[in-house]
């Protein structure tokens, strides 16, 4: 496994891989990341992983400074996962002095995470476009866990004619349903114990949808009610939206995206399930 820290090193190494899958990450890796790595390796023949805690996608009062980091552990994990190359640039390699360009994706970046985290998706879109240009992957792999991010990246890739195929893989969960996330490391034991309520609430809404409920506000109400029963969980938003436009629905047709953000203590977690026609989530093998 090659560990590369500069853009020049990546460019020099790129020719060795005719097909290359890219998995962009912020590190502190878990089985969710590994599921993307395995799929990329199987589908592309070779896989590169970027590890970069991108400062421009964090707001001024967010957790950039305390975001969990453990590069030696991540590298061992990726080596065992059969990764061909890892790109771990410094912030100044990605944003040298004078850097000034931002990609604003438009309407799909505005609601939900975009509304709660102003500037977040401009930071994500800009760094992902740069990573695509630096690594030049044939495909790039993203997790359904960050559903809006997937929609934003797809939109950007189409709009800017970026020659990369975007692949979205299912959310990997703990045995109790909690979506794997690097931020789960922030949770104290009592907080970790209540966190599965997020997926329980979304799953209840999905069950009601499968039983015929089509009223989006009724589905949102179910999610809010289930969460309200668990003390210490503060809802940021609950949404039932069109999975492509991310516009809130009055009535769900054949498909919808139920998503939420909530705070447990200082930790902000997001999760979602697709309503209708969706591949099921997968459970982590190690938990
Ligand atoms: P992050 O390091 O959190 O920025 O995530 C890097 C990539 O891994 C993103 O495409 C995420 O959507 C994806 N990812 C994070 N958690 C999960 C999960 N539990 N299941 C599947 N993919 C995930």
Structural overview:
By secondary structure, the chain is of the alpha/beta class. The protein folds into 2 domains: 168 residues, 3-Layer(aba) Sandwich (Rossmann fold); 102 residues, Pantoate-beta-alanine ligase, C-terminal domain (Pantoate--beta-alanine Ligase, Chain: A,domain 2). Helix content is 36%, strand content 20%. It contains 10 helices and 11 strands. The chain has a 6-stranded parallel beta sheet, with helices on both faces. Helix 9 runs antiparallel to helix 10. The chain is globular, with a radius of gyration of 19 Å. The two termini are 27 Å apart.
The total of beta strands comes to 11
According to CATH, the homologous superfamily of the largest domain is: HUPs
Total number of distinct structural domains: 2
| Biggest beta sheet attributes | 6 strands, parallel
- Bound ligands, each once: adenosine monophosphate
Q: What is the beta-strand fraction? A: 15-25%
Text of the CATH class of the largest domain: Alpha Beta
The span between the termini is 27 Å
Spans of at least 5 consecutive residues with low confidence:
none
* Rounded Rg: 19 Å
The general outline is globular
Mean pLDDT: 97
Return the CATH architecture of the largest domain.
Answer: 3-Layer(aba) Sandwich
């Amino acid at each position: 496994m090659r560990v590369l820290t500069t853009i020049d090193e990546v460019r020099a190494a790129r020719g060795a891989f005719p097909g290359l899958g890219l998995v962009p990450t912020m590190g502190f890796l878990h089985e969710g990341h590994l599921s993307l790595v395995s799929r990329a390796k199987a589908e592309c023949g070779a896989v590169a992983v970027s590890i970069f805690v991108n400062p421009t996608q964090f707001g001024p009062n967010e957790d950039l400074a305390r975001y969990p980091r453990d590069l030696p552990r991540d590298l061992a994990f990726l080596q065992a996962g059969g990764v061909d190359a890892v790109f771990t640039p410094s912030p100044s390699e990605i944003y040298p002095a004078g850097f000034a360009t931002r990609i604003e994706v438009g309407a799909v970046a505005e609601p939900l995470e975009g509304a709660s985290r102003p500037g977040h998706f401009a930071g994500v879109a800009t760094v992902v476009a740069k990573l695509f240009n630096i690594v030049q992957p044939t495909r790039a792999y993203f997790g359904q866990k960050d559903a809006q991010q997937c929609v934003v990246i797809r939109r950007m890739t189409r709009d800017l004619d970026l020659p990369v195929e975007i692949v979205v893989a299912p959310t990997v969960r703990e045995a109790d349903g909690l979506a794997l996330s690097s931020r789960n490391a922030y949770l104290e034991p009592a907080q970790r114990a209540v966190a599965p309520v997020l997926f329980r609430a979304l799953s209840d809404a999905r069950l009601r949808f499968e039983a015929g409920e089509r009223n989006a506000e009724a589905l949102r109400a179910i999610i809010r009610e289930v969460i309200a029963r668990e003390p210490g969980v503060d809802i940021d938003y609950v949404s039932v939206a069109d999975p492509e436009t991310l516009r809130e629905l009055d009535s769900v047709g054949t498909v919808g995206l139920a998503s939420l953000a909530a705070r447990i203590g200082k930790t902000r977690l997001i999760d979602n399930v697709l309503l209708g026609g969706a591949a099921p989530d997968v459970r982590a093998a190690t938990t």
